[in-house]
Amino acid sequence: MTAFADASPATAPVRTPPATTGPVRTPPATAAFVTPPAATDLLSRLRAAVAAHPGRPAVHAVDGSLDFAELDRRTAALARALRAHGVRRGDRVGVHLARTTDLPVALLAVWRAGAAYVPLDPAYPAERIAFTAADARVAVVVSADTAPPVPAGVPVLRPDAAAPVEAAAPADPETDGDAAGFTPHPLDSAYVIHTSGSTGCPKGVEVPHGALAGLAAALERSGAYRPEPGVVAWNASVSFDASVQQWIRICRGDTLVVIDEARRAEPARLVELLAGHGVTDLDLTPSHWQLLREPLAGAPVPRLFMGGEPVPARTWRELAGAGIDALNLYGPTECTVDAITTPITGPGPHLGEALPGVRAYLLDDRLAPVTAAGAVGELYLAGGGLAHGYPGHPGLTAGRFVADPFAPEPGARMYRTGDQARRSAEGLLEYVGRVDRQIKLLGFRIEPGEVEHALGALAGVTAAAVTVHEPAPGDRRLAGYVTGAGVRSADLLAELRRTLPGHLVPSTVTVLDALPLTPNGKVDLRALPAPTADAAVPDAAGLPGAHAGLPEQVAEVWRTVLGVPSVEPEDDFLSLGGHSLAALRVVHLLRRRLNVELQLRHLLDAADLAGFTEAVRRAAQAGPAEARPALTARRAAVR
To answer: What percent of the chain is predicted at pLDDT more than 90?
Structure first.
């Protein structure tokens, strides 16, 4: 591994950073400080791809396809329109578009106009979109809606907007950009993506073009990106930084398959889409893999890029044992998506090696190296992939982006990740947990304080706390607790859904007479009661009601998985706190208990418990379920 290289006193006069591999092997003393050659900017790489293969498919989406020549024409036209509306180098442009061909066109057009894009996901609540646009101070918004929820006075352009060439020509190409040949400076901002904030409001992270170009080059040098063009699925939300690593593949000549929301929510349809387009690379969270694992059984599995949350040991063993070509990716938004990678091979989960150009340190609270096997330290990252910081929050930026005492160049920074790690006796870097309350849930970074702030602001609520509840192994959910006279959890949840993205809305809100406190007066999160009845899922044969009638068996599985004391025929699964992973567990348990051929869509398409019970009855009448085929590796592992 090269994540932790020893530095000599000549190159690191303040402190010596920890060795990469402990007792296994030691790279050259200055390996961590070798500066890789400057990466070619992504717009230049896109122009080369257009020139080399104008007729190659560039984008497939639900509304059609574009080849590279058409992609170039459309992005140039929208870039001219943006500049005609006053967009200049250094500006920020909001992109409020559904997952169609318009989305990559708009993102590239913003770059060609010299600006940075700010994703405004239409799936988010209007209040959240308006806040993000205002916080980023967008100059223009690109949207297919006539009146998107953005601040008054902000111009709105359609994604098919165009302007005459003469109307959009900048006076100074060096400062204003040029649709045909603008080359961004490495320090020019590429995008601002907002993440959950502990103070109650999301905060933007501003990433420069140089860091983004370096990411693509590093993933190529590490072998994560193959030399030949691939077919890449764009799976993540544009508001999630993992999307960046997916969609920028188009700039190197890969074909991009934009997965629409309907297919993202239905595993069987998503697998059909992957096969139909011959997708070679799929980025997803371990939680999403659990939904796709059965539909993919028996079919060639694309190379998997797993990130966003720790890979469970069971999933790791399954992928490694089947020889599936898969990578574990680690990296915070502040370090341009990915910083450490490793093939998913071997006996158990670990983080792997730092990408080329990344320096990774394991330090204690005094910034001294942690070198002993099994000792826990905090992970710090440095190198050219660091973000500029949090726009408008200089204090927060200074607190997280601190001086790098190990770098040979003056003024170098390192990012304090807040993630705890350790090295095993074999020298493998292993994730341990967080030093703060930040959590990763279904791939999203969540600050419980933001959700607590939103709950506490609701009418009638006098105090609020948020934590993670795990009713069954692997089924982690956000749980809210409030105090207040006369408040109802259903009303609070309905109000939260109007203001927060879905991943920030708790599955349950429990009303208490008082929140438990520690001796020093702080909320005792460990003393909070379970939000509902015990939701642990026993084996199907041991479930209560295993010999009851079909309606009671289906209802019992709902109660067990959802952790609710009772369900009614007219109850809706999602309204009871269900989500896609919980739905998968319901389907899996009923398959095992009844030996029926059920699909996830049977549950998600049902209006209520009665409707789903009828779907189960029809499946039972159709005969027993077929045996599930094993996973099939598409090709050998990465390395």
So the answer is: 51
**Which tokens hold the place of 628?**
């599930």
The amino acid that residue 197 corresponds to is G
* Residue 393 pLDDT exceeds 80: yes
Task: List, in order, residues 6 or more apart from 340 with CB less than 8 Å away.
Answer: 3, 329, 330, 331, 351, 352, 353, 354, 355, 358, 360, 429
Q: Which two tokens stand for residue 254?
A: 């890969």
Alpha-carbon torsion (412, 418, 419, 423), positive or negative: positive
H/E run at residue 431: strand 429-434
d(CA 612, CA 624): 18
Backbone angles phi, psi at 214, to 5 degrees: -65, -35
For the cut 80, the answer to whether the pLDDT of residue 180 exceeds it is no
The partner residues of 596 in beta bridges, in order of sequence, read: 624
Structure tokens belonging to residue 104: 């990559």
Of the candidates 524, 435, 444, the one whose C-alpha atom is nearest the C-alpha of residue 478 is 444
Q: For residue 338, what is the DSSP state?
A: -
pLDDT in tens, 336-355: 999 999 999 988 899 998 99
Q: Is residue 229 helix, strand or coil? A: coil
Contact 455, 508 (CB under 8 A): no
| Interval 503-544: pLDDT, tens | 888 988 999 887 887 665 668 888 888 885 333 333 333 333
Q: With the C-alpha atoms ordered 321, 327, 333, 339, is the resulting torsion angle positive or negative? A: positive
Beta-bridged to residue 195, according to DSSP, are: 203
CA of 480: how far to CAs of 558, 560, 572, in Å? 21, 20, 20
Nearest Cα residue to 250 out of 421, 449, 109, 383: 109
Question: What tokens does 141 get?
Answer: 């918004």
- Residue-by-residue DSSP string for 476-534: EEEEEEEE-TT--HHHHHHHHHHHS-GGGS-SEEEEESS--B-TTSSB-GGGPPPSSS-
192: its two tokens: 């601002």
Q: How far apart are CA 289 and CA 273, in angstroms?
A: 16
According to DSSP, the β-strands at 281-284 and 255-258 are unpaired
Alpha-carbon span 313 to 554, nearest angstrom? 30
Tokens 């170009």 appear where?
Answer: 213
What three-state secondary structure class fits 121?
coil
What is the DSSP annotation of 262-321? HHHH-HHHHHHHHHHHT--EEEE-HHHHHHHHHHHTTSEEPEEEE-SSPPPHHHHHHHHH
Contact 431, 351 (CB under 8 A): yes
Question: Could you tell me where the beta strands, DSSP code E, fall in 295-365?
Answer: 300-301, 303-306, 326-330, 340-343, 353-354, 358-363
At position 95, the amino acid (one-letter code) is V
Strands 340-343 and 140-143: unpaired
| DSSP letter assigned to residue 334 | G
Q: What share of the chain is helix, strand, coil (3-state, %, to 5)?
A: 35, 20, 45
